[in-house]
Write a sequence for this structure.
């Protein structure tokens, strides 16, 4: 892993690795190339479980290949459905969830995550999170529709009750306005009424 802070995913993994326990249930809501899925599978250990979602066959095949190469494929369930349908396949409480919003690197840039499905997934994931569970988002917005999705996600996260959730954002202040940024959400308590 890179020690450069420009490696957002590496930076976030360093934060998460201290929070993931063997046996945890984790979600990768945008499997992509499988790097986050692999990280989660290694971190939860042989008694843990990872559910990874992607609508692109190419992404799931690359993820499956990477998991097999590292001997952790049995810890992961791959789901060829939108992350908006997470509740249809995952019923247990989760401890960690990761999103990379945008498009699959090296593929069709017109096939991206969308605000509507992302907001549905976020709502479900926040309800499924255990107390002190963590949700991590990396938000890429330098593609058509990216700014709109980022804005919708920001509005949603800003509206979360502060007694129930802590929301922390990190962004580059010396790069262009469309540079990716990250958000961490921790569930502090269940919502009341």
């Amino acid at each position: 892993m890179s020690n450069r802070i420009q490696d957002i995913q590496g930076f976030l993994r360093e934060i998460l690795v201290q929070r993931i326990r063997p046996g945890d249930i984790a979600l990768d809501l945008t499997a992509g190339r499988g790097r986050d899925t692999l990280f989660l599978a290694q971190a939860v250990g042989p008694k843990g479980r990872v559910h990874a979602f992607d609508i692109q066959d190419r992404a799931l095949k690359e993820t499956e290949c990477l998991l097999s190469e590292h001997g952790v494929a049995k810890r992961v369930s791959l789901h060829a459905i939108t992350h908006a349908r997470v509740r249809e396949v995952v019923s247990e409480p989760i401890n960690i969830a990761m999103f990379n919003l945008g498009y699959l690197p090296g593929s069709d840039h017109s096939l991206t995550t969308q605000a509507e499905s992302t907001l549905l997934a976020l709502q479900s994931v926040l309800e499924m999170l255990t107390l002190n569970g963590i949700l991590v988002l990396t938000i890429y917005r330098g593609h058509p529709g990216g700014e709109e999705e980022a804005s919708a996600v920001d509005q949603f996260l800003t509206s979360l009750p502060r007694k129930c959730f802590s929301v922390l954002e990190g962004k580059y202040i010396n790069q262009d306005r469309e540079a990716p940024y990250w958000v961490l959400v921790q569930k502090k308590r269940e919502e009341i009424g």
In short: The CA atoms of residues 5 and 39 lie 18 Å apart. The longest helix spans residues 115-128.
